[in-house]
Amino acid sequence: MKQLIVASNALYVCPVCGGPLQLQQSGKNYVCQNQHNFDQAKEGYLNLLPVQDKHSKEPGDSKQMMIARREFLEAGFYEPMAKAVAMMIDAEKTKGQSMRLLDLGCGEGYYSRKIAFYCNHSEQIALHGIDIAKFAIAAAAKKQPEARFVVASSNRLPYADQYFDFVLRVFAPSDDDELKRVLKYSGHLLTVTPGPRHLWQLKELIYAEVKEHASESLIPQGFEQLAAQRISYKITPNPKQRMALLQMTPFAWRANESVQRALNSVSELEIETDFILTLSVKTE
Fold it and tell me: pTM for the complete prediction?
């Protein structure tokens, strides 16, 4: 039997049996009491998505979508929103105390890196990221080796109960019960969703009738809203960046060849961005 390092407060739980995962003395893999074994990739991330939970060969965003998102985000178009996210997190961080933060549906870790850049004393924030797309997580781990990234489903989070102080979800689906389980009592949840006029001009090229984004119920049961902030500004991406933005949206599949030609042919297109940031606290 392989020897395990004993940990009184395990971070990860086994996605197969639910038991605590312990890091082996080699520091290269995690094992549970039932001997389910998970190796750490050379990039530093951990894959905790069992084969039986995969619904395709490579779940999550495709490599093409990942590259499109990278090109758009790294151009800085969502930087004001990312900075606002970091500032809201910073305002809730207790001076001198550490914080465990989970970036849910983190992709390549863009927002995790912005948190590390903008938050005061960010070295006190233990950053964790989770996404179902292995390509994205591998890239995130390379770019931010001090953070801990995991391949897993947001509907079955492979973390111990009440482990996190803060969860961030930016345009990410999640399971409310799982959010409550992994957050400490009085832990915070920051949700970013599209505002009413988000990407209005892009939608005008796709739909005959454009409607504002409907107001969503952002506060899961067992949480209480603390604050909300709306961030709106205009961007002017070039044709290539517009196509990358389109690939990031849920209405990309509606964009036929004529829509794509229109996106490329317009010399300059000013597009509205509109985000709603909602901060809530776990109350039960």
Answer: 0.91
